[in-house]
Amino acid sequence: MADYTLKNIPESLHSRLQAEAERSFRSVNQEIMFRLHRSFDADEVRLTATHARWVYDALQSGDPKPFSEDEVDAAFERGLKRAQERKLQGK
Length: 91
Known about the structure:
With 91 residues, the chain is mainly α. It contains 3 helices and no strands.
């Protein structure tokens, strides 16, 4: 297992971590690990919900029709462009 040292933790954040660790009967390190795991789990849930919504919307959008290779490529390029724009905006 890898070790990692956090530096320059703001005092207010450190105090909150200590208080939550004590409340949960965990060490500060255990509290940090717990919260990191929880944040990744939450990201995964949001992504899964987004994908499910996309599938539902697609199924509700009408009768299926095959896409041409050009239409698939164009849609892919639009998706990449949107992702790059969101990354630049920090979303």
